[in-house]
Design a protein that fits this description.
Length: 172
């Protein structure tokens, strides 16, 4: 694994998407256009509301993003599932960042609440992920809550999202 940093650029995230940041067979982000993160501004395995870790990341919203023309024609909004997927992506990244082995898989979510829409007029969304539980043994799992802000306004609240890492041996 590369040096563990406290912030990551888009180029770093693309290295992860190509499987080069955490090594073959380990946590890997999706490539654009499914990559829902442009940069991680802060990542730590300490702090946060529960003292288990904190991630802050950003995604630049551009009117030409692929989902706006089709969701919905004449009334473009970012699908809520993409905000949730971005949060899952970040939690999986965190598990690789702490040295967990295996490929990331979304395992579940407690509740998702929508407070505001992300439209083409929004410039940036911010993810704030508070780790609640982290297991890094033979089984690697993270449980976290997430707040997503659209230009500083609350847009999503996600509770008890879960991501696990699965090795090839565990998948067999």
């Amino acid at each position: 694994m590369a040096e563990r940093k406290s912030a990551y650029s888009l180029d770093d995230l693309l290295e992860c998407a190509h499987g080069r940041l955490f090594g073959p067979g380990n946590a890997q982000l999706p490539l654009p256009p499914m990559l829902m993160i442009d940069r991680i501004t802060h990542i730590s395995d300490e702090g946060g509301e529960h003292g288990k870790g904190l991630i802050k990341a950003e995604f630049d919203i551009k009117p030409e993003l692929w989902f706006f023309p089709c969701h919905f024609e004449g009334d473009p909004i970012m699908p809520g599932c993409l905000g949730l997927d971005g949060a899952w992506q970040l939690l999986g990244f965190f598990l690789g960042w702490i040295g967990g082995k295996g490929k990331g898989r979304a395992v579940g979510v407690g509740e998702v609440k929508f407070s505001a829409m992300v439209t083409p007029a929004v410039k940036k969304i911010e993810y704030i992920i508070q780790l609640k539980r982290v297991v890094n043994r033979r089984l690697v799992v993270g449980v976290a809550d997430c707040t997503i802000l659209a230009d500083g306004e609350l847009a999503f609240t996600i509770t008890d999202m879960k991501v696990g890492l699965q090795t090839e041996e565990q998948a067999a």
